[in-house]
Amino acid sequence: MTMDLTVGPVQYHWPRETLLRFYADLADQPVQQVVLGEVVCSRRRDLKTTDWLALGRELRQAGKRVWMGTLALIETEAELRAVRHWAEQDDLGLEANDAAAVYLAWKSGRPWRIGLHVNVYSVDALREYRAMGAVAWVPPVELDLDTIAHVLRVGPEGLEGEVCAFGRLPLALSARCFTARHHGVQKDHCGFICQNDPDGLTMLSQEGEPFLAINGIQTQSAAVQSWLGDLPAIREAGVNSLRLSPCSRDFFEVIGWHQRALAGECSAEDAVQGLRTLALPGVLANGYLRHRTPGMQWSLYA
Q: Per-residue confidence at 300, pLDDT binned at 50, 70, 90?
């Protein structure tokens, strides 16, 4: 099976010029799908609606399949209106990260994707979503590969599977902003202080070890998930696409190692060693790949 590479949404508060330069450069990268949009905090408005639409069209002209990711935690009527607006765009697909977005995507009558924040675990639920027009499923990050393979094998026909193969893992969301609290400011008057941490702010355990990362209202893993070393098993599982989550440094080198491994130009083991030479925000982990293994651990190849 040929697998695609998908670049997920930028989860961090990057300045406008940084985002525009990132997507301009991404147009020339060997990835097949891109998920745009702000999925973490509605206060981050460096890019306006017209900017996202323009980026989407430019990436489509570059040959990418483009999806607009919705907020993972919708709290206000204004945020709901924004999702409704994206659902009405005929030239962009929608990746729904919230039940309200699922409803609006279904009512739009166009193909849409089940984002990882929807937390779909069962085959029966996937069949219902497939009947509502879903074309792809991004499993919750804590599902092991055997479970994902089972769901894809017995699940609804025609539903693509995409796994989070690289990046800090989005673990939880809260109405409170952890970054604002950390700096002693109010959420509504945060001054967008989270833009000082382009890969989130690493938190240490009591033993002084990197444990989690905070990114506004989002809690992430401190480690960087990489399933690159298990490509044969991922292919065998029926996965259609690998999602790569952007980081602030060396991300295009990350894409390059994945592309070379998928093309058979290097071994998966060599590609992992290549990742280890890059300036990543955390150590590599792949624990969730295997049943009952802590996600922050690194295991030998299958």
A: low
CA 254 to chain centre: 15
Q: Tell the burial category of 20 from Cβ atoms under 10 Å away from its Cβ (0-12, 13-18, 19+).
A: middle
Check pLDDT > 60 for residue 45.
yes
What one-character DSSP code corresponds to residue 34? E
Average pLDDT in the 289-297 region? 88
3-state helix, strand, coil in the chain (%, to 5): 35, 20, 40
Q: Which tokens go with 103? A: 């409803």
For residue 229, which of 279, 290, 169, 153 has the smallest C-alpha distance?
290
Q: What band does 301 get if pLDDT is binned at 50, 70 and 90?
A: low
Residue 121: closest CA among 149, 158, 156, 151: 151
Kindly provide the residue ranges of all beta strands, DSSP E only, lying in 57-195, ordered along the sequence: 65-69, 93-96, 112-114, 134-137, 160-173
- Poorest-pLDDT segment among 19-28, 81-90, 131-140, 271-280: 81-90
The helix/strand/coil state of 11 is: coil
- pLDDT score at 90: 81
Residue with tokens 């382009």: 198
Residues 6+ apart with CB under 8 A from 3: 234, 235, 239, 240, 241, 242, 262
What residues have CB less than 8 Å from 81, skipping those under 6 apart? Answer: none
CA distance 24 to 6: 16
Q: How far apart are CA 163 and CA 160, in angstroms?
A: 10
Q: What are the backbone angles phi and psi of residue 201, rounded to the nearest 5°?
A: -105, 115
How far is Cα 60 from Cα 82, in angstroms, rounded to an integer? 22
pTM: 0.95
Q: Are 215 and 197 in contact (CB under 8 A)?
A: yes
Strand partners, 215: 218
